[in-house]
Write a structure and sequence with these properties.
With about 140 residues, the chain is an alpha+beta fold. It is about 20% helix and about 40% strand. It is built from two helices and six strands, in the order βαβββββα. Strands 1, 2, 3, 4, 5 and 6 form a six-stranded antiparallel sheet that branches.
């Protein structure tokens, strides 16, 4: 079976630090898929907060994760302070891709992408990508 290949942008827009907790480990003693998504969620919240946003308010709209890709390069263990470099790609009419390069010091241990769609929770409908987001990140794609 062919492995998933995930290209990352050359210039990340933010770097978050997230420690691996004991509860992030699976029965194999390392970070599992579900926990890696939770770690990326924390990094995404830090990223949004850095730019004055929240998951419920990016220029007046919320976000929903529409898809995810995880690619492991090495095992991740308890106590590691991960550095997660975040990039933005494929900004489009209703969303974008957020990329993550997960580092343990100088070693890349994982990379990931989450697709996001902007959402109007009041109307329960997909929304246009807010101009504030486009202004900040459309040139990075």
């Amino acid at each position: 079976m062919a492995r998933v290949k995930l290209d990352l942008p050359e210039n990340p827009v933010y770097a978050a630090t997230v420690p691996v907790r004991i509860t992030d480990l699976n029965y194999g003693g390392h970070v599992g898929n579900d926990s890696l998504l939770s770690i990326l969620h924390e990094a995404r919240v830090q990223f949004l907060n850095h730019f004055g946003f929240t998951e419920h308010n990016v220029g007046g709209k919320g976000i929903i994760m529409s898809d995810a890709v995880l690619v492991y390069k090495a095992q991740i263990f308890y106590g590691t302070a991960l550095t997660i470099e975040i990039g933005i790609t494929d900004v489009h009419a209703h969303g974008a891709d957020i990329t993550y390069k997960v580092m343990n010091g100088e070693q890349e241990v994982a990379r990931a992408k989450t697709g996001i769609v902007f959402f109007d929770y009041g109307k329960e409908k997909i929304a246009q990508t807010p101009p504030e987001f486009i202004t900040l990140f459309a040139s990075n794609t």
